[in-house]
């Protein structure tokens, strides 16, 4: 059975738990996501641990944001780990994004547009012209022009971003919550089915799967729901 286009966020308290979650979900999903906390705690070893024998794609979500020279060095350092995807902040600007793309030529550089935890009020307070869909669209266009081949945006901006950048760019969508799940710290959310229908290529789902008593079964259930929707 074809795995679903889901990146399971392995926000685990320790390396053993992350590796166990990864092993449970990899039959059902294409990708596992390693975030900043897990990577800083365990370093490069975490990549091999969660990749395991399955060879599942690893999404390294470090959200690099610094001057171009520093980001170039950081991207080059992690490129040897062969992550499928590495994130940088679009707000770092085109030179920074281009530096990451050039330093990690075999990794898909995904530019994070506006964090899904931010509301329009938050954008106004930090001085970023909104509303959120407008800010996301501007940052998406900037990132693609600088060489990014993937973008991270909330479900609410998918249609506008797809219209802006075309079909060749991979759209990665956090803030995905199955119906009935708590939104937690996400401000702009949608169900997996709705996000795919609106044009997402990869859905980031964490706690609705990993906080389940059986993460493998939870991943399988969401994957099955997506298959039913796609065949409907």
Share of β-strand residues:
15-25%
Determine the N-to-C terminus distance. Answer: 17 Å
Please list the strands of the largest sheet in the order they lie side by side.
1-2-3-4-5-6-7-8
Question: Could you list the spans in which at least 5 consecutive residues all have pLDDT below 50?
Answer: none
Radius of gyration: 17 Å
Global outline? globular
- The SS-based structural class is alpha/beta
- N-to-C SSE string, H for helix and E for strand: EHEHHEHEHEHHEHEHEHH
Our count of helices gives: 11
Total DSSP E strands: 8
Largest sheet geometry: 8 strands, parallel, barrel
What's the mean pLDDT score? 91
* Helical amount: 40-55%
Written description of the protein model:
With 232 residues, the chain is of the alpha/beta class. It is built from 11 helices and 8 strands. It is 44% helix and 18% strand. The chain has an 8-stranded parallel beta barrel with strand order 1-2-3-4-5-6-7-8, surrounded by 7 helices. Helix 1 packs parallel to helix 3 (45-51). The two termini are 17 Å apart. The model has no long low-confidence stretch (mean pLDDT 91).
């Amino acid at each position: 059975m074809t795995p679903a286009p889901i990146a399971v966020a392995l926000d685990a308290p320790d390396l053993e738990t992350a590796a166990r979650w990864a092993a449970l979900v990899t039959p059902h999903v294409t990708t596992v996501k390693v975030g900043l906390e897990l990577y800083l705690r365990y370093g490069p070893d975490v990549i091999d641990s969660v990749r395991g024998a399955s060879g599942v794609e690893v999404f390294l979500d470090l959200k690099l944001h610094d001057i171009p020279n520093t980001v170039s060095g950081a991207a080059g350092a992690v490129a040897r780990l062969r992550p499928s995807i590495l994130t940088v902040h679009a707000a770092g600007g085109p030179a920074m994004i281009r530096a990451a793309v050039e330093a990690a030529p075999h990794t898909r550089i995904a530019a994070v547009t506006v964090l899904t935890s931010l509301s329009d009020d938050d954008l106004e307070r930090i001085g970023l012209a909104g509303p959120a869909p407008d800010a996301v669209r501007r940052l998406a266009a900037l990132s693609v022009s600088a060489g990014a081949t993937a973008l991270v945006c909330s479900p609410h901006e998918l249609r506008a971003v797809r219209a802006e950048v075309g079909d060749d760019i991979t759209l990665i969508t956090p803030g995905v919550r199955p119906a009935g799940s708590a939104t937690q710290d996400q401000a702009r959310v949608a169900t997996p089915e709705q996000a795919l229908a609106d044009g997402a290529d990869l859905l980031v789902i964490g706690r609705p799967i990993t906080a389940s008593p059986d993460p493998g079964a939870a991943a399988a259930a969401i994957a099955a729901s997506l298959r039913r929707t796609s065949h409907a």
